[in-house]
Design goal:
Distance between the termini: 36 Å
Largest sheet: 10 strands, mixed
Strand content: 25-35%
Structural class: alpha/beta
Shape: globular
Number of helices: 10
Radius of gyration: 23 Å
Helix content: 10-25%
Oligomer: single chain
Number of strands: 24
Length: 514
């Protein structure tokens, strides 16, 4: 998934046909059950984020239990409250005898703030150098059980903070589970399974001022499986040390309808591994709908707990069931987006999605698939292929504006052929010192992964040599956003796309007119 050998599948840049067939790839073992399935939300160190704990400190660690429609936090019994590390076997520590009532997250509800003696937490092993989460268990005065988890880490632990989005909107995130009853699942051994997908959405939001961002992976077990599939020696907790910006289930911003970007990741890659780009687009007013292509783009955990591992690899350069399924997935997701605008059960997106302004973007095989979606869906305004080898019916070209991004040293013949036979304008962006995974979050994760596994290098991860890591993210975000603004949103000509390099001397732009 991450290694250079598997990049042959991910980028489809190999000349040799690499056939595996259904079930040809040994999947990683199922990640362990989640131990933090609490009934309520917590906020460790309320008022601060990320939750950095000074292990040599004295005094008390404050933890807030957040009140909601089902819990009056004022009824919590502090005598029953204890704090533990859910990922270790250390004994729990009891709370001090009293609690403080305060609305710590600004949602208008009273929360209960408990205090735990910090030196005791360290002595018992609840707080330690490699902790990543804390679990609180308690009861209300009536005896109802209350539990929850929140992220926390030692203040001197290496932490990856994704670059902050630059747009005017806060960012929300949510997920959907959609089943295409018209298609049989061909990558499953079970008979008559229907194709089902998990879709993650990032969107312009109005978030509570003091709300904590969601975890990097909304489902922690998916992140664990993603790391395990890469073949690196990284602990299950590693991704807990990656901090993004989107707030889970935040209200949609109250503006008019928002344009839509469908996004398809590379083979073996979860959409979450493009969070920096997704958050940037959402902060500028796009609803970004990113598809986890079941059995092909990283592990998927369905809402009922079922585990679908990544078992399939692309099988060649000329169109495969893998590619055909990816294209069909995107077209189905587009139909579901239309249905979501007509009637979202939560009411969040109803009447808020601009179905006349849709772009389809993707990385690697996701970029190849986006090209075919443009062919089959004339209502789509623009498509982008971020360093993917074209496949299938790509030689027919597309009629929509097209963004093609690749490393400056790319020798992909399909890119040259696509440009030569173009039917519409193509913006070709070549990035020096980049590699295949420069355009994902992987450059940002590199140092954190290296701290656990000496095998991890920029070469083995194919992240390129742009320094600092934020530079790679800045380039990807700037050029994809500029293309989206000009072609999908229709916001007028972008200086970046009119030949101005701006602050990006690493980028060479060639505009190939229709």
């Amino acid at each position: 998934m991450f290694s250079k050998s598997s990049h042959l599948f991910t980028s489809l840049a190999a000349v040799t046909v690499l056939a595996t067939g259904c079930g040809g790839k040994k999947p990683p073992s199922e990640p362990p059950p989640e131990v933090c399935t609490g009934t309520t939300a917590l906020d460790v160190l309320p008022g601060t984020y990320p939750n950095a704990v000074e292990l040599s400190g004295t005094g008390a660690l404050e933890v807030a239990i957040l009140g909601d429609a089902s819990l009056d936090a004022r009824t919590l019994d502090p005598a029953t409250a204890s704090l533990s590390d859910p990922d270790a076997s250390a004994p729990s520590v009891s709370a001090e005898a009293t609690l403080r009532e305060e609305d710590v997250n600004g949602d208008g509800r009273v929360d209960a703030v408990l205090r735990f003696p910090l030196p005791t937490l360290v002595e018992r092993g609840v707080l330690h150098a490699e902790m990543s989460r804390l679990r609180l268990d308690a009861r209300t005065l009536s005896g109802a059980e209350v539990s929850g988890c929140d992220r926390a880490y030692a203040s001197d632990h290496l932490l990856t903070r994704l670059p902050a989005p630059t747009g005017p909107y806060a960012v929300g995130t949510t997920s959907f589970h959609w089943v295409d009853t018209s298609r049989e699942e061909e990558f499953s051994e079970a008979k008559r399974d229907k194709r089902e997908l998990m879709v993650r959405v990032w969107y312009p939001a109005t978030s509570p001022l003091r709300a904590q961002p969601a975890p990097y992976f909304l489902v922690r077990r998916e992140g664990i499986a993603q790391m395990a599939g890469g073949g690196f020696d990284t602990p299950a907790r590693m991704l807990d040390f990656v901090h993004a910006h989107a707030v889970a289930e935040a209200p949609l911003a109250a503006d008019a309808r928002f344009p839509i970007i469908l996004f398809s990741p590379g083979a073996g890659f979860s959409p979450t591994l493009y969070t920096s780009l997704m958050e940037e687009l959402a902060s500028h007013g796009y609803v970004v709908v990113a598809t986890s292509h079941t059995y092909t783009t990283g592990a998927v955990i369905f809402p009922d707990g079922r585990y679908a591992p990544n078992t399939e690899d692309p099988g060649g350069l000329f169109g495969t069931p893998f590619l055909d399924t990816t294209v069909a997935d995107l077209r189905f997701v587009l139909s579901q987006v239309r249905a979501l605008d007509a009637g979202d059960d939560s009411g969040r997106f109803t009447g808020k999605l601009d179905l006349e302004r849709v772009g389809v973007f993707g990385h690697s095989i996701g970029g190849a698939a986006s090209t075919l979606v443009c062919q089959k869906e004339p209502g789509v305004r623009a498509c982008a292929n971020i360093d993917g080898t074209f496949q299938g019916s790509w030689k027919k070209g597309v009629d929509q504006p097209f963004l093609l991004v690749h490393p400056q040293a790319s020798e992909d013949g399909t890119h040259r052929s696509f440009i030569e036979d173009r039917r519409a304008r193509v913006y070709e962006v070549s990035v020096s010192r980049s590699a295949h995974l420069t355009f994902s979050d992987m450059p940002l994760l590199l140092e954190l992964m290296k701290s656990y596994d000496t095998k991890v290098t920029a070469d083995t991860l194919e992240t390129g040599t742009l320094e600092p890591a934020e530079r790679a993210a800045s380039i990807t975000r700037a050029w994809v956003l500029a293309f989206a603004d000009e072609t999908v949103k229709g916001g007028g000509e972008s200086p970046l796309l009119q030949g101005s390099s701006g602050d990006y001397p690493e980028v060479t732009l060639e505009v190939h007119s229709r």
